[in-house]
Specification:
Blueprint lengths: L5 E3 L1 H9 L4 E7 L5 H12 L3 E5 L1 H7 L7 E5 L7 H11 L4 E6 L4 H13 L4 E5 L8 H6 L9 E4 L2 H10 L3 E5 L16 E6 L7 H4 L4 E3 L12 H16 L1
Helix pairs in contact: 1-2, 5-9
Length: 244
């Protein structure tokens, strides 16, 4: 984790969140007490900031400084809001291609997906604030720097993002094995958003209920699923093929 993307100390983290900095995650010392810690917890919950409790040894590894039981990671990029993203993209493209990631939690998978998305002309990536992988050093490295070239939007709830996309005339396509349709049965050469699910649970059932289309990749081996970044690449390149 790169030091310039860390802040430490309770007051510093409270100030960063209050000032609107892109705080990805806060690591708190287990059993940490005190009024300042209570204030930090209130600010994090109010602003929907991810946090987790860790042993003090983890915090000591992150920074040799006096962390006061709290270390935060700051995203190396600025996120865009969904209204601005979609409005901007629709102004310049008749057939936009968006990618929605439903709580993909591994930073390296996230980075690999961003790299493929940039290579395939994705106009923007939408993720949920809570439960999603952070944009950290691992993400930047695995994306080969593509994270700086593609707009990323964080939303409170994926379902709200789906409704907003649909209301903007964009077809939503969920990548899921819970369908008879394969990726080759549906049109991807129109305004679409492809939705990919988390590594372990797939797409949330409540999200699956509201999408326009569902599609799966045909599987011929004994293993029932692909790594999410590989599956995402297959979906995106089928969209590229159809658009060609």
């Amino acid at each position: 984790m790169e030091k310039e993307h860390l802040i430490f100390g309770i007051r510093a983290i409270v100030e960063a969140i209050t000032a609107g900095k892109e705080v990805d995650k806060v690591f708190l010392q287990k059993d940490a007490q005190g009024e300042l810690m209570k204030d930090l917890l209130k600010v994090m919950k109010r602003n929907n900031v991810n946090f987790t409790y860790v042993p003090v040894e983890k915090l000591n590894r992150l920074t040799p400084n006096n962390h006061q039981g709290a270390v935060a990671t700051i995203a190396p990029i600025s996120f865009v809001d969904i209204e601005t993203l979609i409005e901007t993209v629709l102004e310049k493209s008749k057939t936009p291609l968006f990618l929605v990631l439903d709580q993909i939690s591994d930073a390296r998978n996230f980075g690999a997906i961003i790299r493929t998305a940039e290579c395939t002309g994705v106009d923007g990536i939408i993720v949920q604030k809570s439960g999603a992988a952070p944009v950290n050093g691992d993400t930047v490295k695995t994306s080969a720097g593509a994270v700086f070239n593609i707009p990323i939007c964080r939303v409170e709830h994926i379902k709200d993002a789906i409704f907003f996309l649909q209301g903007s005339g964009i077809k939503t396509v969920a990548a899921t094995e819970k369908t008879d349709q394969t990726i080759y049965d549906i049109a991807l050469n129109e305004p679409i958003a492809i939705i990919m699910g988390s590594e372990d649970r797939g797409i949330n059932p409540s999200v699956l209920k509201i999408v326009d289309e569902k599609a799966k990749l045909p599987m011929f081996g004994t293993i029932g699923s692909l790594n999410v970044s590989v599956a995402c690449g297959a979906f995106l390149y089928e969209a590229v093929r159809q658009r060609k």
